[in-house]
Design a protein that fits this description.
- The chain is α/β, with parallel strands linked by helices.
- The chain folds into two domains: 4-126, Rossmann fold; 132-227, Winged helix-like DNA-binding domain superfamily/Winged helix DNA-binding domain (Arc Repressor Mutant, subunit A), CATH 1.10.10.10.
- It is built from eight helices and twelve strands.
- A five-stranded parallel beta sheet has the order 2-1-3-4-5, sandwiched between helices. A four-stranded antiparallel beta sheet has the order 6-7-8-9, with helices on one face. A three-stranded antiparallel beta sheet has the order 10-12-11.
- The longest helix is centred in the middle third of the chain and has 20 residues, at 107-126.
- The radius of gyration is 19 Å and the shape is elongated.
- It binds calcium ion.
- Calcium ion is lined by residues 10-11, 53, 55-56.
Amino acid sequence: MATRILLAEDEALIGRMVELNLCAEGFAVDWVLDGEAARQRALGERFDLLLLDLGLPGRSGFSVAKSLRDAEVTVPILMLTARSDPASKVRGLDAGADDYLTKPFEMAELLARVRALVRRSQGVRHLPSASRLQLGRCEVNLETREATTQVGKVQLSEKETRLLRLFARHRGQTLSRQDILDEVWGLEKDPTERTVDNVIVRLRRYFEANPSVPEHIESVRGEGYRFVA
Ligand code: CA
């Protein structure tokens, strides 16, 4: 079944560009032009993602997001806005958006964020009970973040746990540092690819019998990392 995206954007040129690019990526796109229509559609149908412009006629993006969250609609929301001030970013997240992109944006960045949000939500749906992760003789409880490691019992950080979840969903696949940044750090602007490497070093110390010859978290030269368990 195609991944369904609801696009709420009143600017025809932007809406058309986004729709074309999402369709080219294989997404099924429903495009609405005002806030109230977006709210009604998202309340009544199941979408995998809502791409929500902040400045919409009828009802603002803030109001749409808030109203959907109040109604316990859990669709991931990526908010689009021309406003770059931090206050509206915080307000958007408070209203229930999962991620935030400021116009003008690069289409490649939009697509990367869309893919990340869709993967994250589908991963959660497909693996509801996968709360335990086994790495050789080590084990992680992904809910409580408690881990039995090579160096004893450890309480993992939220980022370490998110990265392990991501690996668990993509066993055997190579993930680039940018993929990992998109999924684990999302909105945060400061982290660099170096940040990813630092977390990997810690995880290897916890879970590899010999961290310099990793068996679970492999390096793929020039590409990124691959999880094998
Ligand atoms: Ca607008």
